[in-house]
Amino acid sequence: MTAPAADWRLIREEPRPGPMQMALDEVAAETAAAGGPATLRTYRWEPSCLTLGYRQDPATVDWSFCEREGIDVTRRQTGGGGIYHDGAGDVAYSVAVPAADVPGELLDCYHLLCEPVLDAFDRLGIDAGYVEEPVPELYHPACYLRELHPAHDVVAGPAGGAGDDATDRRKIAGNAQYRKRDAVIQHGSLTFSVDAERHLGVFADPPVTPAEFRERVVGMDELADVDRADAVSAVEAALGDWATAEPEATLESDGSWSSAELARAEELVETKYGDDGWIRTRPGNGR
Fold first, then answer.
1. In this predicted model, what pLDDT tens digit does every residue of 128-137 receive, in sequence order?
2. Which one of 70, 87, 105, 174 is most buried, counting C-beta atoms within 10 A?
C-alpha cells in the first residue's frame, strides 16, 4: 500500500499541553474533511500528560499523584488504556486524511498509516515490527501493559537480535485511530525513553512493579545511540517521504496552523479536552 496522493502539510514538533494536542488532532481531521490539506505532524507533551482511553474508568487514575507531579490528564477520542506521555521520553505523531482516500477496513488503514512509523524506526537502526505471537496482559487500564496482539502491537529489540518474547522484543509504540466527519485521524506515542515509576504512578494501585514494566516496554535510547532530536527528525522525514511516494502528492514541509484552526482548538480545549466533565466522567455514565 502507498500513501494517498493528497495535498499534505507537515507540522513539525510543537510543545503544547495535552488537551491542546488532542484538540489539534481533531481540528486536523476537520480540516481534512472540509477539503483542506491532509496533516502530518509530530508533537511534544508540555507538561507531561496522561491520556485516558475513550471509555477508561477515571477511578483507575491516581489523581493525587498527577496533581503532585504536575502531570496533565485528558481523555482521547481513541480507545484502549491510559498512556503516560513523558515530556522528554515520548515522541508523538498524528496523521489526518480524508476517509475516502484510505482503506475503509480499519486494520488495512491502520497498517497503511503505520508504515512511516516502522520506517522511522528503521532509519534509527531499530529493529521494530508487529509482535509475532500474543503476549499476555499484565494490567488492563494501561495501554502498554495490555495483551500484545500480532495485528497491531509494535515491538522492538536490538538490530539483528533473535527472539520475540517479552524480554527480547518489547513494546515501543502505541498507535490508535478514529474517524470523524469523513476524515481519519491516527495518532501514536513512540517511546524514546522509559520512566517506569512515573508511568505506573499515574495509575491507582497497579499490580505491576517498575522492573516488570521495563520487561514489557523499551525506549529508543536503549536500542540505538540516538538523542531525542534524532528520533523526532527520523519520524518527520519518514512521514514526509511516505506522503510523497506518489508523484501527484504535494507536501508543504514546514506547515502551520491557520488562526481559525487555533481558535477552534482553543474552543475544543474549553468544551472538551480540558473540561472535567469529559476527563473525569466515563462516556455513557452521565455524560
1. 999 999 999 9
2. 174
